[in-house]
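Backbone geometry:

***
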Amino acid sequence: MRRFMLVGLVAAVPLAAITYIMATQAGGGRATLAVRDVAQAVFALAALVSSWVLARRSNRPTRSAWGLIGASAGIALLGEIGDLVYSVALGVPVPFPSTADIAFIVAIPVAIAGLLAFPAAANQFATGRRAALDVVMVVLSLAFISGALSLPQAYLFPESSFASYFRAAFPIADVAILAVIFVSVRRSLSTQGGRLVLVVCGLALNAFSDSAAAFVSATTTIPVLNSLLGSGTIYGYALIGLAPLWPERSAEEQEAGIATWPDLIPYFGLGAVAITAVLGVVAHLPMSSYVALPAAGLLAVLVVSQLLSHAEARALLSQSRLAEARMRERESMLNNVIDHAPQGVAAITLDRRIMNANPRLGSMLYAPLQTLVGATTDSFLPEPYVTRVFRSFSQAAESASETYESDCQVRRADGSQFWVHWSATPIRKADGSIDYFMATFEDVTAKREADETAVANLAQLEKLSRLKSEFISMVSHEFRTALVGIQGFSELMREQEMGATEIQALAGEVYNEAQRLNRMITEMLDFDRLEAGKMRLDLKPLDLNKLVRDTVARAAVSSPKHVLMADLEPGLPEALGDSDRLTQVLTNLLSNAIKYSPNGGEICAGTRLNGGSVEVAVKDHGSGIPQEFISRLFGRYERYEDKHAGKIIGTGLGLAITRQIVEMHGGRISVDSVVGSGSEFRFTVPLAFTVAAAVTRSA
């Protein structure tokens, strides 16, 4: 804008000087005419240069529009140069039609093309028929005013028929350019703004000065007035030259809306027609055919315009009703979608009050909608938490996320809690401020529990994988140790001459190593069968006291430095069990007691009656087991390594097999242990008559 004001002030100085010369006729008529022709050429050149400079910087189709406006000014420039050759260089009167007259007629279509080349606004309200009627109304109004002012008569008194036809082109060109000015203002004002206003004002001034000069020359004999009006093209091209310097219209201004006043231009023309008609009546001007025909045409256009307005109004009313019906249908559909949505939906004000909610939210919170709507979120969401979330939107930058999502615990109306995934989206007003928040709630309690279970299972699988790897490494080591012993003892017996006693001793060692391999393989096979559910028990009534006594006797032979005792309750009823598997259980417990009592000591295996079961206990006075390891003791591949007991031989499957065999009998196994004092393992086996009574009741 500063550049426009500066150039405008600079241009105002020569324009003021030219106006003074035209008004005072300084230097005589010939000098005044020369000054006018030079000024018209200079300002036409300025319009040409500024328009083409802007055209080079613009994009299509604006580039084409400014190029044509500049070309129109260039054509006028050539005409003025031709007149200067006659009046200044040759010093002879300018003939009619002059080069400037010819250039004016040629420049008008080029200027019209330039105006129509400006890009139209995207949101035009008027229909094509309405726009065409408005153009016809403007043309007829101009024709009526021209006829009433006797402009045709002013042009149609030439010296020859050629001059008559040529002069007839001037009022036609003036009406055409003024009509196109109306069209371009209506089409492109919102996209071009002040630049278009300056261009159309310049072109309108050129057309007005031409018609006014012709009217004055035909009706008066005032040379000063004729000279001033004939110089109007100087000011017209000055405005066109200044137009490219006007600041470009921003995208926000282009989208701000459509001005309504351009739609009133046809009615401004009707107003001018009415004023002209009144003045004609007052001045007793005769009604000529140049006035009657446009007047009749205006009347017909007005009638058609009214009929078209009525038809468009009915069409708009029908479209409006259809749009309202569709809007109601859409609103009903959206309400149904929200009411039947699987998630809870609520509109929440800035002060955390619920404006509206769907039935799903009420069912999730165990609260009826009547009590939920109007209440605050404090009853089910923590107030500081919600306040912090809402404030984060008002303080967020424009590039920040417009939706908050998180998981949190929510309180129901009955006090219970559950997990939800909720989101909050601000609904903003036209000025950008937050009106309310749209929140959705999804019950994810089951999902979180499933995720937690999956995490726990994954951790268990990872643990099992680690234990399995350790088990494989340990078993491989144990197998290799046993095989090395067997190989070494066998080689000694083969390579060296030995007595029967020595061979018998080495054969005993080979046997012990083979037995150890057999036990490990048996444990692994048993565990695999237990895991696969293929192990079957041969349940029979049995005497547990005898089973314990025999097992203790066999174990005592294998460890002379331990004292194994049997503390048996006399007169125990028969238990129901698999003798071989229960012997395996007791043997494993006694073997562990021996392993974890490296310094010897007393190991006691006892029985006692415990309700409908017989409880078998194995107690040692060894190193004991830490409390933190007891929960893992009966797991797969678990084996407690006691630094005081030395290297413990085994697979880590014994207690896992023991537990499963006991549970297959319908019993339970447990352990009490104190580090440094020893451990006591207890397991139960149901009595035979207890099992029989249970089977009878179920039958």
Residues 289-339 form the longest helix (51 residues).
